[in-house]
Amino acid sequence: MNLNIALLPGDGVGPEVLAQAVKCLQAVEETFNHQFIFREALVGAAAIDKKGRPLPQSTLKLCQEADAVLFGAIGDPKYDNDPEAKVRPEQGLLELRKSLGLFANIRPVLSHPSLLGKSPLKKEIVSGTDFVIFRELTGGIYFGEKKLNEEGTVASDLCEYSETEISRIAHLAFKAAKSRKKKVTLVDKANVLESSRLWRKVVTRIGESYPEVALDFLFVDNAAMQLVLNPTQFDVILTENMFGDILSDEGSVIGGSIGLLASASIGDENALFEPIHGSYPQAKGKNVANPIASILSAAMLLEHFGLMEEAMAIKLAVDKSLRKGIVTPDIKSKSQFGTQQVGDYIAHSIVDIEDNFSVNDENIDLGKSTII
Ligand SMILES: NC(=O)c1ccc[n+]([C@@H]2O[C@H](COP(=O)([O-])OP(=O)(O)OC[C@H]3O[C@@H](n4cnc5c(N)ncnc54)[C@H](O)[C@@H]3O)[C@@H](O)[C@H]2O)c1
Ligand SMILES: CC(C)[C@H](C(=O)O)[C@@H](O)C(=O)O
Ligand SMILES: [Mg+2]
């Protein structure tokens, strides 16, 4: 298959982790005889520094013309620590999501068998966790009207949702549940928020056309607790933009590190793949950031194009690195392996495909499908 992939390394550890994902895609290209063309562009603080804007027009154009986008991370402390900043790296990512129509952000959460002891949660609690968060990505409080009065003393952000915005992601969530454990949990705050009551109404109605899928509801405060008390109860969590952002970082604790969690952002015409973590500025240039979230995002990219065997080769190679302890310090504190060494090991394991498939003979659970 020929694929044009736009690469947006961004800031902090973004370029380092993205480089490992590219290595893995190149290993897939070589092993399975595909042709991937990579083109790179600026985004975030790096783009503000060079072009004065977090999403230059040339970057957006490259993404619109590509088959898919692979995103690193954005964000820089110089903006985080300046509430008066007129322009912010994060605007680049938000504008990109909106412009590409990426309304569904799919974030799988898995407790890997060889990492059970890594979570601060008890093994008995996290063992067998395999759920996926369907986070609405282009609506809600992130995109509602923002106001600050002239004195700078009162501010507001509007949380607005339309039926259309809710129903298009709800359909994706129900379809995913059909090929998984057949359960959708809508997380909202319908006891307080009008927008959440609309979510409940629309999702309940849509649920009726998926009779094989059970639908239940949780208030977000309770969901935050249930996630760490009893994560195996979940299959597909469907939720709005901000709740999904918060719950997915919380969910990463189950797996052992946020450096493991990948995501796919899907729209009707475009798709972008990115780790859920940020630019982790403290680690920039230190070769310590975990590249696995970025590498697994590349696997999700391949799945998106139906390259299931290729995606499986990446997942098996990741699995092998975890089992053999070829991991970054977030997984094993005294590890002598860095971002690049882990990336090299995984990429080499992909090429060494026979070896990978023998690992699979041991019946490792690599998670249920997130493909819709
Ligand atoms: N999608 C994105 O690009 C994205 C996501 C979240 C935050 N951000 C931005 O990133 C900057 C830093 O934000 P933050 O510190 O709140 O979140 P962060 O995700 O960058 O880091 C939080 C903590 O998670 C851990 N971590 C993150 N990535 C890791 C990795 N690859 N390997 C190992 N450990 C990792 C580290 O302990 C780190 O201190 C901010 O500017 C923020 O706006 C961007
Ligand atoms: C950087 C920020 C805009 C972004 C979000 O809140 O969506 C990030 O936290 C994420 O999870 O992708
Ligand atoms: Mg986030």
TrEMBL record:
EC number assigned by the record: 1.1.1.85
PROSITE patterns tied to this protein: IDH_IMDH
Site features described as Important for catalysis, chain residue numbers: 142, 189
Entry binding sites for substrate: 97, 107, 135, 221
GO BP term (any one): L-leucine biosynthetic process
Isopropylmalate dehydrogenase-like domain mapped to chain residues: 4-346
InterPro entries the UniProt entry points to: IsoCit/isopropylmalate_DH_CS, IsoPropMal-DH-like_dom, Isopropylmalate_DH
Compartmental location: Cytoplasm
Signal sequence range: none
Source organism, top-level taxon: Bacteria
Keyword Cell division included in the entry's annotation: no
Binding, Mg(2+): 221, 245, 249
SUPFAM superfamilies named among the record's database cross-references: Isocitrate/Isopropylmalate dehydrogenase-like
Entry cofactors: Mg(2+); Mn(2+)
One GO CC term, this protein: cytosol
UniProt key word Manganese: yes
Alphabetized UniProt keyword annotations: Amino-acid biosynthesis, Branched-chain amino acid biosynthesis, Cytoplasm, Leucine biosynthesis, Magnesium, Manganese, Metal-binding, NAD, Oxidoreductase
Enzyme class, spelled out: oxidoreductase
Cofactor notes: Binds 1 Mg(2+) or Mn(2+) ion per subunit.
GO molecular function ontology, one term from the record: NAD binding
Location (main, coarse): cytoplasm
UniProt family annotation: Belongs to the isocitrate and isopropylmalate dehydrogenases family. LeuB type 1 subfamily.
Quaternary structure and partners: Homodimer.
Biological function: Catalyzes the oxidation of 3-carboxy-2-hydroxy-4-methylpentanoate (3-isopropylmalate) to 3-carboxy-4-methyl-2-oxopentanoate. The product decarboxylates to 4-methyl-2 oxopentanoate.
NCBIfam families with a match to the protein in the record: leuB (TIGR00169)
The protein, known as: 3-isopropylmalate dehydrogenase
Organism the protein comes from: Flagellimonas taeanensis
